[in-house]
Amino acid sequence: MKEIVKSVHIILKEEKELNEVEQKLVEAAKDATFRSYAPYSHFHVGAAVLLDNGEIITGNNQENCAFPSGLCAERTTLFYANSRYPDVPVRILCIAARDTLGNFTKEPISPCGACRQVMLETEHRFGSPIQVMLYGTGGTYFVNSARELLPIGFDKNNLI
Ligand code: THU
Predict the structure, then answer these.
(1) pTM to 2 decimals?
(2) Low-confidence spans in the chain with pLDDT less than 50
(3) CB of 137 closer than 6 angstroms to any ligand 1 atom
(4) Closest-CA residue to 110 (of 85, 76, 83, 140)
(5) Whose CA is nearest to atom 4 of ligand 1?
């Protein structure tokens, strides 16, 4: 028998520890929460990605009365970014959320499994890691690669 341990390495930064680009991404993700369409959950999620060409693309959750037809902020944003710039790698993905009372969450918000899978695909697609920033008013989590959020995730190598 063998034990395999896969762990996630998280850096927690306070607001004042964020560099200029990181601050910009947090602001963009927070701002995007105000454009989300979440009439059912009233949970407003915003995402901002920094592309290799310096461009920042934002998106948010888009809900639907047929619940599974809606889409999370992370996938909305990644699909939009990848559809506009199919050849430009995604460097950083930042997400922020406001709860049902309209306040930014204290705890960093955690992407769902399907969004992690799409992040992983995007990493593979461009052959470069995506740094993930999970914003909370109590601090922002930094994870260096989406792969760390989905340690034994399915990828294209499994198809062979
Ligand atoms: N949601 C996101 O957009 N991203 C996450 O990381 C978690 C959840 C959305 C989906 C749904 O519109 C609402 O938040 C409540 O689950």
Answers:
(1) 0.96
(2) none
(3) no
(4) 140
(5) 72
